[in-house]
Amino acid sequence: MSIWNRFIGLRNAEDSISNKKISVQYNALRYAIVDVEIGLEDYKIHDIGALRYDGAVYHKVSKEELFEFFSDVDYICGHNIIHHDAKYLFTDKTCRWLLVDTLYISPLLFPERPYHRLLKDDKLMSEQINNPVNDCEKAKDLLLDEIARWKSFPEGKCRLFASLLKDKKEFEGFLSMVGAEYLNEGLTEVIRDLYKGKICGHADLVMLVKEYPCELAYALALIDTTDQRSVTPGWVLHHYPKVEFVLKLLRHTSCKEGCDYCNTQLNVLYNLKAFFRYEQFRTYEGEPLQEQAAQAAVKGMSLLAIFPTGGGKSLTFQLPALMAGNSVHGLTVVISPLQSLMKDQVDNLADRGITDAVTINGLLDPITRALAIQRVRDGEASLLYISPEMLRSKTIGRILLARHIVRFVIDEAHCFSSWGQDFRVDYLYIGKFIREYQQKKGSRNPIPVSCFTATAKQKVVQDICDYFKQTLNLDLRLFASTASRINLHYSVIHAETDEDKYLKLRGLVAESDCPAIVYVSRTGRTKELATKLTRDGYKALPFNGKMETDEKIDNQDAFMNDQVRIIVATSAFGMGVDKKDVGLVVHYDISDSLENYVQEAGRAGRDPNLSARCYVLYGDNDLDKHFILLNQTKLSISEIQQVWKAVKDLTRRRMRVSCSALEIARQAGWDDSVSDIETRVRTALAALEQSGYLIRGNNVPQVYATGITVRNMDEARMRISKSQLFGRDEIEKTVRIIKSLISQKYIAKAQDAEAESRVDYLADILGLSKKEVVSVVERMRQEGILADSKDISAYLLDAGDSKRKSTILLERFAKLEKYILNRIPDEALRISCKQLNEDAMNDGIDTSREKDIRTLLYFLAIKGYIRKKEDALRNMEISRQTGRETTLNRFEKRLEISRLTLEWLYQLVAATKKGNSEKQVVQFSVVELLNQIILGPHALFTKLDNVQLEEVEEALLYLSKIGALKLEGGFLVLYNAMDIQRIKDNKSRYKLDDYRMLNEFYKQKIQQVHIVGEYANLMVKDYNAALQYVRDYFQMDYKKFITKYFKGDRVNEIQRNLTPKKYRQLFGQLSKCQMEIISDKDSRCIVVAAGPGSGKTRVLVHKLASLLLLEDVKHEQLLMLTFSRAAATEFKQRLMELIGNAAHFVEIKTFHSYCFDLMGRIGNLEAVRDVVAEAAGMINQGEVEPNKIGKTVLVIDEAQDMGVAEYTLVKALMASNEEMRVIAVGDDDQNIYEFRGSDSGYMYRLVQEPGSKFIEMTENYRSARHPVDFANKFVKVLGKRMKSTPIISMRKENGWVRVTRHESKYMYQPLVKELVRYRGNGTMCVLTQTNEEAVILMALLRKWGIDSKLIQSMDGFLFWNMVEMRYFLRYIDKRVKTPLIPEELWENAKYATFSAYDRSQSLAYVKRCVELFEQTNKTKYVSDFKEFVFESSVEDFCDTSGADVVVSTIHKAKGREFDDVYMLIADHYVKDDQLMRRYYVGMTRAKNRLFVHTNGDSFNQVSADEYLIDPEEYTMPEEIVLQLSHKDVNLRFFKELKREVLTLRGGDVLKYKDSILYDTLTHKPVAKLSQNMQKTLSEWKERGYEVKSASVRFIVAWKPKDAPKDEPETAVLLPDLLLNTIIS
To answer: Is 60 exceeded by the pLDDT of residue 1584?
Structure first.
């Protein structure tokens, strides 16, 4: 047990030991030294060692025999004997000996650093363990040293110490032993005399002597040291916490009267010269703020200082820190968010010869870090710079407890305020940390705090002051400069374009002859501009936060030393940079707040005698860039909700877990590619902690190096060097670790949170990485140098199940992994994850999942099997690190170890089975598992040989990564784990009220961008008004400032993260109803029943824009699902027109494509069956990567077309995203796909969801009044409608509706005649019910000389099977080497295809397809293009522009609109709602005029402008065309004709004879009609028609569904047959 623990736990037992007083002459000393070993578990004596003055040795356990051994002794000595050994030795009897404790006296006699060579803190340095006699030897050496040291002191000093320590049991034995003499009076005078000039002449010594004599003695001992870096040992501060208070009173509290000590040592001006060699402090327009703030700090006040940039802020806290280091050996902790800035400040001090400052931050390597920690512990540092995140480190917590902290300095203090320009949630932890620190230290007075910021509005100042008042009850004294910089001249220059901006910048640089800083907002632009300027003869260097450290330093130095006059930088430049002669600052991009602008512009003219100029080059779009950036970096409420849900999922079984930021992000469904992902997770956790949802503990790994089994260092060294387990280079590290453990003589329980045997602590103090320490500790356990401890807990899946899920899972992954390893060629595999999954499934691995492939590749990469590179769009390059055979052998070995591991763990579970919980936990250690694998009963039957510890660890890591078991503790600590404890229950949700502070901050950020824009606009108009505006901003109450400068509607404008101009451009033209949908940011479900022509597409596109620009939805969190590829493409195009390139990143997919994506497959319309239902099932089973389904908004187009599968998918997505919003838009009246299973009832179900809102969009902007009235009357016949309001036409024109009721069976002729008669300039469309009708009409229109186009529709014919499309795809496939299609290859493929098929009429479809893909895909990926083609149908690429008339079936015309619509409604269908809805869709396509030709009575009850009855009988047209599909040709006939068919092109004329078609050039047969088609032609013949001519319509690839995989496809010709009436 550690002595530290002995203090903490056993302080109350002191009084039971009474000391008998004996006075003995020093020269006749009869003493013995004793050391007792106590058992950890039973608190009984296990071993006793003793040495007597005559050299006799005792080493037994019996107390009785020990007292015999002591019989002629007067003094019993020991290290910490009074509060430890005596308690166990003299339990039942009074002690007749005088006790001498070497522990308490040693810091008084040896206060210098380093302490006595035999001591480490309060412990004896020992290279042996559990040997009390050895410790007695050490204690004897120490005692003799202490006596010699006492004798060397001057008499006065001896008397002083003896008098202060008189009658204190910890000291009286020693004082008696040395025959100390005491003073009875005049103690205070002696102290004043002895310590003159070292302490305040007016300190209240009378009170100190009376109340704190021991503390005073320790303080005086420290004051005596010549080395200011000596500090009072931590254990003394623990036992006598008032030592710090006494020191402060003596040496760091200025007296009113003034004395030599205070007038020099506590005088800031005196010390300014001493430390910094400055004669005087800086003043601001005559205000001595710097001196006043430094003086206040020395007096122990808490303060808030607002100094302008370059105002000497650093010196203001460094000077008091150095003074306190000198006077009371205290430490000042500086908390700053900028790691690079900390390093700069430490370096700057070092340049002045001041080496008292240290920084500990995440950028340090382990050795530097260990060194820094050592310097703080040893008292070498009086200034420590750390980031807020470091306060969570256990090691930092421990070293700070052992030091006397005199002040906390918080830099960038505006981060506390949500009204500041840079609010940071992690700052809110600072107060809690300081409060807990003070409680642990038992501080009598609160530790003072200094806050610094460069710019602060009133509200920010108030927030900072309130924060410290509430958390620490501190009142901050304000030191603020009111002076403005009069040597700076500001101007704003308006620049239209980027080119214009650059020319103006070059002009400014050219006319100024001084160092210049050019500020830009994006890191990429720093290099671009610097290169341009240098090219134009003005040498410039870039500077940004993302550059390599060395380059940053070099560029900064070049600028500081005038090697280069211009630096192009982001705002990261200039923090702490103090260059006096900068005469020009140009903001190429305006800053995002006035605070930052003033701060950045203020880097000019640091020399008050220099006149400097500050320019802003301002363009209209500059503010938009800030808004976009803000949107990307903002942490929205929905993201925090996702993190909260992830925490709930991770803590489902236990309230407390240890996990990394990356694990939480993945569980939350965030994409790994999100920038700054770990920071974002930490911020979200801090926000949740702030609102009381969870507590984030210290970052803590779980491994302990405990239970030392060797007797001493020599034995350890011998065993380590003999062992096979340690390489030569590792022996030294291993020895250092065991030495550190033994010398701390630490045998504490592993569960002790403060244990110095914790791996992270050992790593920190020894300068090793955690990984190295863990590896050594594991092997020392294997070697038996450390006791093995079961510090791994494994949770197995369904341990009680006979199926053993973990084993099934292992075999599933093994099969997939073997496949992947075999796929990698010797060079490299370039492939997307999705393609790899597709290939695996096609090659028979049915259980392959994209998620599993990612897991395996991640594991294989971190364990060095493969190298993996990945681009932003997830395309990978994978290569093996070793040969195929070696890699596969390693895999097989790991698989075997994994199988045995699971087998053994299942046996352990069975042995310890309690209850039947789903997950069973077993505890074990790696060494135990290794021995089991080597020596277990199965060892005889397996091929495993020479299994290493690392291999077992790898297998465990593998099992945990694939999810076969969950591991905690043990070696799995090599990432930055955070300790998280959930407080609120699993049902609670993070609400808007919790988000208030962050929300306030983001609102402020938006307003600040508008405010800085207003400044730029004012500056152009009125210089003085603009300066007044800035003054008001910083000095007025914020609300009053807003009221003064933003009147009327402008108050609303500055709430939006869009400029007013952009807002009007995006949303200015929308109707009230459309705006209601756009403005709704809260409803869980918005269901919009959108009537025809109501602007459904427009609303959705604008809603997408609003979500991205106004509602904080990140593009990766947004998903839009449509029912056709054409709709997805149209939305993408329209969104691009609206918001530009940002649209590329939005996921707009068809239901099928998205589901193929979830399954990691490449979709095509053939394989489409059940894919949606399958994907929904996978989501519900948890088989999909969270980042694929982690969405905050789902938008559904044509929601009325949802069937059971789509609805199940939507519900699955809603279930896995608690807070996901759904926006579903559709028209239940237009549900015409019931035959495919669609049902508008599902849309209605969404309305029933809690928090839903139902909106009817009934304003029709498309159609004139009469067509709308006609449709309204017609639609009344439908049942179960969602809309209750009739549609209203928003147009002024009446339009026209005519219904013609025919008696005739055929109506083709009158329809075309009417069309010819009424033909106008607008677009016209003829709508039919069947494809056959459409084709007949096409022929008739052609006969009338009317140019018409057919919207093609083919049954059983997929677009990607068209020969022209296949040619294009194959051309690319053969030549593409990477997942990305190079531009040159793309152009070549176009050229080759378009040349080869230039005379083909079908080529137009391919051209249109290629064109649309180019428009919507900035970069062209093979998988994206294939998916685009596979998902498209022929009609998607019918370009109807330029045709006089479009002919289409009603189904194909849905979503289109025409000026005039002619409907052919033949009456041979069952009149149900489905049919009526189809007619409704048809009639609502008309914008101006609607003509209905029918021979049924569906329209009898609907009044029209004209209702005609036509009794005439019409015949079929003389000429009709039959378009043949697969079922109309004999498919087997093509088997041997592939070459002949492929030479033909779409539109080629064919010869027809006796059911066979011939090539007119070669006269060879190229197609044969099917039996059915022959029968159909016979029927036509009976009606008086025969085949006149034939032509090629399409050539397509085909093979039978049941054909073997490797059978080649056949080329099938699909012809058009032209039939004519037979002339008799």
So the answer is: yes
DSSP assignment of 24-82 equals --GGG--EEEEEEEE-TTT--EEEEEEEETTS-EEEES-HHHHHHHTTT-SEEEETTII
The whole-angstrom separation of Cα 1329 and Cα 137 is 108
pLDDT confidence band for 746 (50 / 70 / 90): very low
> Do 681 and 661 contact (CB within 8 A), yes or no?
yes
| Dihedrals phi, psi of 119, to nearest 5 degrees | -110, 140
Tell which residue, 1164, 262, 1186, 1144, has the closest CA to residue 649: 1186
Strand 1324-1328 relative to strand 1348-1350, pairing: unpaired
- DSSP 8-state symbol, 768: -
Residue located via tokens 């496939």:
1373
| β-strand partners of 1553 | 1556
The structure tokens listed for 1123 are 């029912």
Give the pLDDT of residue 767.
Answer: 75
Question: Which stretch of DSSP H or E encloses residue 1328?
Answer: strand 1324-1328
- The whole-angstrom separation of Cα 254 and Cα 201 is 10
Pick left, alpha or beta for residue 1363 (phi over 0 → left; psi -120 to 50 → alpha; otherwise beta). Answer: alpha
Enumerate long-range contacts of 201-204, CB under 8 Å, 24 or more apart.
201/255, 201/257, 201/259, 201/260, 201/261, 201/262, 202/255, 202/256, 202/257, 202/259, 203/249, 203/250, 203/253, 203/255, 204/249
CB 1090 within 8 A of CB 1227: yes
What distance lies between CA 845 and its chain's CA centroid? 33
Look at residue 725 and tell me whether its pLDDT is greater than 60.
Answer: yes
Contact 761, 395 (CB under 8 A): yes
Q: Look up residue 392 and give its DSSP letter.
A: G
SS3 state of residue 336 = coil
Backbone φ and ψ of 149, nearest 5°: -65, -45
Separation CA 649–CA 347 (nearest Å):
46
In angstroms, rounded to a whole number, what is the distance separating the alpha carbons of residues 520 and 526?
7
Mean pLDDT of the chain: 85
3-state secondary structure of 1255: strand
CB 573 within 8 A of CB 562: no
Tell me how far apart the alpha carbons of residues 969 and 198 are, in angstroms, rounded to a whole number. 52
**H-helix or E-strand containing 608?**
none
Structure tokens at 1609: 């496809």
The strand ranges marked E within 219-366 are: 303-306, 331-335, 357-359
State the Cα–Cα distance between residues 983 and 436, nearest whole angstrom: 20
pLDDT computed for residue 523 by the predictor:
84
Cis peptide before 1267 (omega within 30 of 0): no
What is the chain's Cα-based Rg? 43
Does residue 1301 sit in helix, strand or coil? Answer: strand
Write down how long the chain is. 1624
- Ordered strands of the 965-969 beta sheet: 919-924, 792-797, 965-969
Amino acid found at 570: T
pTM: 0.74
The pair phi, psi for residue 950, each rounded to 5°, is -60, -35
